[in-house]
Amino acid sequence: NLLEALTKHNKKRAYIVWHRRSGKDKVLWNFCVKRAVDVVGQHYYLFPTYAQAKKVIWEGIDNTGMKFLDHIPKEIIDGKPNDTEMKITLTNGSIIQLIGTDNYDAIRGTNPQTCIFSEYAYQDPRAWSVLRPILKVNGGVAVFNTTPNGENHAFDLWKLAEGSDEWFSECLTIND
Fold first, then answer.
1. Among 9, 51, 131, 145, which is disulfide-ready with 24 (CB 3.0 to 4.6 Å)?
2. Is 117 helix (H, G, I), strand (E, B) or coil?
3. pLDDT at 174 (0 to 100)
């Protein structure tokens, strides 16, 4: 499965196409938090827009009534989360930040260890072009999740992932 591929088998790239309401963001948010605890550095959770990142994660509440931000134990948060930049600093020095790829130039020159691309089919693919070489050099992890939106950049990357031993890829339909 996805988490086993990323943790036990040390895959650095993953692409999942899971149906709506399958829990993509809940699973990957928790993975991002775990990475931030295990690997000190910057950890980005990227959405198509800054506003979407704010709605889905920063202010988001899951089906059980739990806030996404409450998945981070309070005792590992250093200070108060930065609401303006949607950034959380952990006691180990790691930073978890929500970002909209509608302003992908703002991440140019950064050094993330983890990049989670949520709803990649709706994102500006130039964000991946900016982050791909950084993650390659520093050995960082990139995970893409999406639901289909035609044969666009996300479809092309999905096909690349499906045919590569270096990537974990998985498609789950509502029937799965």
1. 145
2. strand
3. 83
Query: 29 φ, ψ to 5°?
Result: -65, -45
pLDDT at 23: 82
- Among 118, 111, 88, smallest CA distance to 16 is for 118
Residue 123 CA to residue 33 CA, distance in Å, equals 22
Q: Which of 123, 171, 176, 159 is nearest to 18 (CA)?
A: 171
- Supply angle C-alpha 157, 160, 161, rounded to 5: 85
Phi-psi region of 64 (alpha: psi -120 to 50; beta: other; left: phi over 0): alpha
DSSP secondary structure, 35-65, as one string:
HHHHS-SEEEEEESSHHHHIIIIIS-B-TTS
* Predicted TM-score (pTM) of this structure: 0.94
Query: What is the number of residues in the chain?
Result: 176
Q: How far apart are CA 37 and CA 77, in angstroms?
A: 10
Write down the pLDDT at residue 168: 96
Q: Bridge-partner residues for 145, per DSSP?
A: 16, 118
The parts of the chain modelled with pLDDT lower than 70 are none
